[in-house]
Design goal:
37% of the residues lie in helices and 23% in strands. With 266 residues, the chain is an alpha/beta fold. The chain has a domain of 73 residues. It has a six-stranded mixed sheet with strand order 6-7-8-4-9-10, with helices on both faces. Helix 5 links the parallel strand 7 and strand 8. Helix 2 runs parallel beside helix 4. The structure holds adenosine-5'-triphosphate. Adenosine-5'-triphosphate binds next to strand 3 and helix 1. Keywords: ATP-binding, Nucleotide-binding, Transport.
C-alpha cells in the first residue's frame, strides 16, 4: 500500500522504508536549468537511522522533499513502504496562535481522529518529548529547544497517527532540525531524539552539515557529492566505541573536504 502526497511518483516498496533508484531532479529549463540530484540510489531499512551529509547546495533538502512527495523527480523512482512521512525542518514552524498541545494535535485533527483519542495521543507525545507541563503555552512562551521538541512531537503525531496507514512502518524526515540551537540544547535534543526514535521504531533520514552530529545520531552516514548530488560513500557507524567514533569523524571530515574541493576545482 502506498501512502504519500504524490502517488504518481512514489511507489510502494516491501523490504525498505524508502528506496531511491536513479533519482534525478532538475529545476527549470534550458540555460537556467539547475540539476540538483543526478542519479541517487539509496535504500533505508524500516527502523533505520540514516544521516545525509554533503556540501551546501548539494541537494539534501531536495532529496527530502522528493521522499516527502513535495516535489517530483525528473527521472528515476522512489519506492515507499511507510505511512505518510513526517517532516521536521530547521525552524519549528509552529502555528503561533495555537498552544503547544494544539500544535501537536493538529495533524491528528486533520487525519479525522476522534477528540478523545487525539487528546490521549497528544498527552503521550508531549510526555515523550518531556513537555507535559507546558502543553498550554503558546510558541512565543517557549525556548527554541522547547519549540523544536513540540515540532518533533507534531512530526511524530503525523507519522504515527492511527489512520488507515497504522499498520505501516513510519518514516521521519528531518532537515537540520537542530542547527539553529545553541550547542548545549542541541546536545540534549540529539539524545532525546535517539530516545524517541528507538521507542517508536520509525525509520529516520536526518540531513546535517555536521559530521559529528551525523556520526553520533546515525546508524549509517551517507555522503552526497557536491551539486549535482549523488551518493559517493557511506559508513556504518552503529555502536562505535568513543575512540572509533572520533576516528570515523576524522575520516568523514577528510572525505567531505575532498568532495567540496574537487567541486571547487572543477
Ligand atoms: N525550487 C527550486 N527552484 C530552483 N532551484 C532550486 C529549487 N530548490 C533547490 N534548488 C537548487 O537546487 C540545488 C540544491 O538545493 P538544496 O536546497 O536541495 O541543497 P542543500 O544540500 O539542502 O543545501 P543547504 O545544505 O545549503 O541547505 C541548489 O543549487 C538550489 O539552488
Amino acid at each position: 500500500m502506498t501512502a504519500t502526497l504524490d502517488e504518481s511518483t512514489v511507489r510502494p516498496a516491501t523490504d525498505h522504508a524508502v528506496r531511491l533508484s536513479g533519482v534525478h531532479k532538475t529545476f527549470g529549463q534550458g540555460e537556467r536549468a539547475v540539476t540538483a540530484l543526478a542519479g541517487v540510489d539509496l535504500d533505508v531499512a524500516p527502523g533505520e537511522f540514516v544521516c545525509l551529509l554533503g556540501a551546501s547546495g548539494c541537494g539534501k533538502t531536495t532529496l527530502l522533499n522528493l521522499v516527502a512527495g513535495l516535489e517530483k523527480p525528473t527521472a528515476g523512482e522512489i519506492y515507499l513502504n511507510s505511512s505518510r512521512p513526517a517532516v521536521m525542518f530547521q525552524e519549528a514552524a509552529l502555528m503561533p496562535w495555537l498552544t503547544a498541545a494544539a500544535n501537536v494535535e493538529l495533524p491528528l485533527r486533520l487525519a479525522g481522529i476522534p477528540r478523545t483519542e487525539r487528546r490521549t495521543r497528544t498527552g503521550e507525545l508531549l510526555e515523550l518529548v518531556r513537555l507535559s507541563g507546558v502543553g498550554g503555552k503558546r510558541p512565543h512562551e517557549l525556548s527554541g529547544g522547547m519549540r523544536q521538541r513540540v515540532a518533533l512531537a507534531r512530526a511524530l503525531a503525523s507519522a504515527l497517527h492511527t489512520g488507515k496507514d497504522a499498520s505501516l512502518p513510519s518514516l521521519l524526515l528531518m532537515d537540520e532540525p537542530f542547527s539553529a540551537l545553541d550547542a548545549i540544547t542541541r546536545d540534549v535534543l540529539q539524545s532525546e531524539l535517539l530516545r524517541v526514535w528507538s521507542s517508536t521504531g520509525a525509520a529516520a533520514v536526518f540531513v546535517t552539515h555536521d559530521v559529528r552530529e551525523a556520526v553520533r545520531l546515525g546508524q549509517r552516514v551517507v555522503l552526497l557529492s557536491s551539486r549535482p548530488g549523488r551518493v559517493v560513500q557511506e559508513w556504518w557507524v552503529r555502536n562505535l566505541s568513543p575512540a572509533d567514533e572520533e576516528a570515523t569523524v576524522t575520516v568523514i571530515n577528510q572525505r567531505l573536504r575532498e568532495v567540496i574541493s574537487s567541486h571547487a576545482a572543477a
